[in-house]
């Protein structure tokens, strides 16, 4: 495999789901197996996860009926039970609630945003290294969604998950994400899931309506969203079960890792991942030294940094860790919001090339 598989989903929400399910049956089955093992390792048994997914399914229908229809389409197309597909779509809440006690290892991501005044082409960019379990790299896909009633968008997601974590829509709205952990994660699991919110961002026509899914209701678990617009706007939303906080670019550059930048939040991830404390700072330094002349080559070089390896933001497998704690940069993503393009790797950026995916019909 030299790049992430790109599939176009079109028609109704249900029809998009059927195409997704039919195309990626094997990858979806692999994802379910990987996550059930991961849940069990973190002390959440299979029956509990299925019950949680079952309880959340009617709530997803209530929050976002089209998301629920696309989820059911994936189940129909793949021949896999709708509960197991729902389980994939709420896997963030299951895992991050388990992480909140601070005793379990987890790996996170390093993201960035660049305003036009610091880039060589005067475009707006967002992107990240997405670090996660090694087997998940084999199930990452790029979905291009074309539906009549919502903006077209391009996103990286995991097979079986409706909502893309990193993406761009036809209006120049883009999103990248980071995991965060705070003490109250999972206290109320029955809130709108992370992946549903990601999809709603990418289906927004305006920047204010893209922010709404992130700030209008409380989250079940903490998470970070770097939201950008092609016209030169970037806002970072740090969400926790107690409410959101906001971080803005400084001198045209923004970076974020896996701890809260707002002092008003109690942050737990650095207890498990102390490297988060230097990853965002090092990425900022690497980008700022080229301010005014930052181009994709500069970004790619910065994202290949190995300081602190294997606990670097170009992350590689640490074979000294338990297999369930071994992670790597599964994909590195650079999104040009002005051009509506998404560049992504299959694996760590130092070892692989970036493939470019263009959003068809982009403005």
Kindly describe this structure.
With 363 residues, this protein is α+β, with helices and mostly antiparallel strands. The protein has one domain: 4-Layer Sandwich (Penicillin V Acylase, Chain A). 33% of the residues lie in helices and 25% in strands. It contains eleven helices and 14 strands. The chain has helices at 13-23, 25-41, 46-63, 65-78, 82-89, 91-99, 194-202, 207-215, 269-272, 276-288, 296-302, and strands at 5-10, 110-114, 125-133, 140-147, 150-158, 166-169, 173-179, 223-229, 233-240, 243-247, 253-256, 327-336, 341-344, 355-358. It has an eight-stranded mixed β-sheet with strand order 1-4-5-6-7-8-9-10. It has a six-stranded antiparallel β-sheet with strand order 11-2-3-12-13-14, covered by helices on one side. The longest helix is centred in the first third of the chain and has 18 residues, at 46-63. The radius of gyration is 18 Å and the shape is globular.
Largest sheet: 8 strands, mixed
Q: Specify the CATH architecture.
A: 4-Layer Sandwich
Average pLDDT over all residues: 93
Oligomer: single chain
Side-by-side strand order of the widest sheet: 1-4-5-6-7-8-9-10
Determine the structural class based on helices, strands and strand pairing: alpha+beta
Radius of gyration, taken over Cα atoms and rounded to an integer in Å: 18 Å
**Which term fits the overall shape?**
globular
In percent, how helical is the residue content? 25-40%
Instruction: Provide the low-confidence segments as ranges.
Output: none
Provide the succession of SSEs.
EHHHHHHEEEEEEHHEEEEHHHEEE
